[in-house]
Write a structure and sequence with these properties.
Largest sheet of chain A: none
Radius of gyration of chain A: 23 Å
Helix content of chain B: 40-55%
Distance between the termini of chain B: 5 Å
CATH class of chain B: Mainly Alpha
Structural class of chain A: mainly alpha
Strand content of chain A: under 5%
Number of helices of chain A: 8
Number of strands of chain B: 3
Strand order of the largest sheet of chain B: 1-3-2
CATH topology of chain B: Arc Repressor Mutant, subunit A
CATH architecture of chain B: Orthogonal Bundle
Number of helices of chain B: 4
Helix content of chain A: over 70%
Oligomer: heterodimer
CATH superfamily of chain B: Winged helix-like DNA-binding domain superfamily/Winged helix DNA-binding domain
Radius of gyration of chain B: 15 Å
Distance between the termini of chain A: 40 Å
Chain lengths: ~190, ~100
């Protein structure tokens, strides 16, 4: 059985994934360029071992993911204001995580403290992923899961103290962020294209 | 000038008139694709490298994109490599600050 076509398809899939991260105006050209190198690598006469050629071809295809991330000029064009907001968010989330750790240390038998700490870590992951230049989709996924977890914690608090309406308000407020985040991600994706 | 950039320019300068493909440059500069292509994109933006597509071949092979140093690119690359070389000879143990008009 010849594995060449399947390997090429795998390589093309990786290159296709990489190109999804690029702006639409250069996406097709980069795909053509990178995909055209795959069969050349797979048939490189200077490498005798077929397995080595396959590994090199897949390594090349995987490397285009990094190339696409570094080529995406918008990552480097982030405005100073956005960076300042993300840094402030990072500091606030660090304080929240520190508070969560304090709660866990004070009451290690209380399971909700661990959930709150996990919530804090999820919130912390958002500015870190944005500052590290992750894709918009990854950032939105983190933000939505963090928001849902926060809403669940506040609903839990509301169930524990049904008379305290603040918990309901916070939970509903957090839930209202989910469609807003989803719409923001759609807008960001459209702008990116 | 960074090490990868130095290697890419060095690979180009081995035969400045020859068109170089991405994979070809990867092998010559011993760089992964994830490092090479952003560098090529930057050099292309700075008009130090020109890119073009080869004409489609009869055997069904997809046309590949090739890169070549422009005249300005050849001049700057030679200058930068000479500076990097002399800098290394002067102070082998310390990294110097890049010149204001360097490729850094």
């Amino acid at each position: 059985m010849r594995a060449g076509p399947a390997l090429l398809r795998a390589g093309e899939y990786l290159v296709g994934r990489a190109c999804q991260r690029l702006p639409r105006d250069i996406r097709a050209e980069r795909y053509r360029e990178w995909a055209a190198e795959l069969p050349v690598i797979l048939n490189d006469p200077q490498i005798r071992l077929a397995l080595r050629r396959a590994v090199r071809m897949l390594g090349y295809a995987a490397g285009t993911l990094r190339a696409a991330a570094l080529t995406d000029v918008r990552v480097r064009r982030r405005s100073p204001a956005t960076t300042a907001v993300l840094c402030s968010l990072l500091l606030a989330d660090l304080a929240f995580v520190g508070w969560g750790i304090g709660d866990v240390v004070q009451a290690p038998g209380h399971p909700l403290n661990y959930v709150r700490l996990a919530w804090g870590l999820l919130l912390l992951a958002y500015p870190i992923s944005m500052l590290a230049g992750s894709s918009v989709d990854a950032g939105v996924l983190i933000a939505i899961s963090g928001t849902l977890l926060g809403a669940a914690i506040n609903f839990w608090d509301a169930a524990q103290a049904p008379g305290d309406w603040v918990n309901y308000c916070v939970a509903v407020l957090l839930l209202s962020f989910v469609p807003a985040l989803w719409l923001a991600s759609r807008w960001a994706r459209a702008r990116r294209a | 000038m960074t090490g990868p950039l130095e290697r890419v320019l060095g690979a180009f300068l081995t035969d400045p008139a020859a068109p170089r493909y991405g994979y070809d440059l990867m092998k010559a500069a011993r760089l992964p694709s994830g490092t090479l292509y952003p560098l090529l994109a930057r050099l292309e933006r700075q008009k130090l490298v020109a890119a073009a597509w080869e004409t489609p071949q009869q055997d069904g092979q997809r046309p590949r994109k090739y890169y070549q140093l422009t005249d300005e690119g050849i001049r700057i690359a030679r200058l930068e490599l000479a500076q990097a070389c002399s800098g290394r000879q002067r102070a082998p143990a310390f990294g110097g600050r890049p010149a204001p008009d360097s490729l850094e």
